[in-house]
Amino acid sequence: MTSPSNDNQGLKGERCPICKKPAVAGYEPFCSKRCADVDLHRWLTGGYAIPAQEDDSDGVTDEGGEPPQDS
């Protein structure tokens, strides 16, 4: 019995987003468990975070200077 990482039959046109090798059905869209784990590590450590610009407001939304009311 072969493992999915040894399967040379990649998915049609699909490439692993980590190493660009052909994707394997058992680890889709990755080629192996290693690449899937690399991707998971990037998510968990904030490697895929979208940069955001901090809002300088202090929560005041009206001209009267009153803070927003909680519902």
Molecular shape: rod-shaped
Total DSSP E strands: 0
Q: DSSP strand (E) fraction?
A: under 5%
Radius of gyration: 23 Å
Separation of termini?
60 Å
Provide the structure class. Answer: mainly alpha
H/E element sequence: H
Q: Mean pLDDT, rounded to whole units?
A: 80
Continuous helix count = 1
Helix content: 10-25%
Low-confidence parts: none
Q: Sheet bearing the most strands, described?
A: none
Notes on the protein architecture:
The model has no long low-confidence stretch (mean pLDDT 80). The chain contains 1 helix and no strands. The protein is mainly alpha-helical.
What would the keywords be for this entry?
single chain; 71 residues
Give the SSE map.
Blueprint: H1 33-44
Briefly, what is this?
With 71 residues, the protein is mainly alpha-helical.
